[in-house]
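Input chain follows. Return structure tokens only.
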Amino acid sequence: MEKVQKEILYRRLSGADKILIQDYDNYCPYKACNGGQYLFESEYTKIGDNKFEEEHYTSAEFDYCPIYGTFTSCESCPDYDIDKGCMAKPDIVNLDEIIDYILRSIDKNIQVFAWFGEKKELIVTCDTHQPGYCTLCNDNFEEGSYIVEEN
């Protein structure tokens, strides 16, 4: 099954200019800013042949490093230079690494979008990203994600 999923994801994501993975596994819209149940995102922007630059984001209102994906301020990071700013460099990954990450996360509640030029496509979805749903206080939806059929 995983081999089939990998082949489908490779076919669906090949040629993407940008890939966004949204992790809703511990997300609650009522606690998404400062209540501890945040949305986390990993964004992959194509920079060359099978090379993507990785950055991280969250719904939390606290300082969050887009390079390391950690709750920290720039000033407390060892890669911060007071005169030059952030000196950290994003990780560079290939499509196989992104697909492996998606497959490792498929049992969690994730969504995956891909951009092909200006066209945005939903690749993987889950039920728990719907407004008002909290994985800790409501179990109306099944956990896990699934690959969306091609149009």
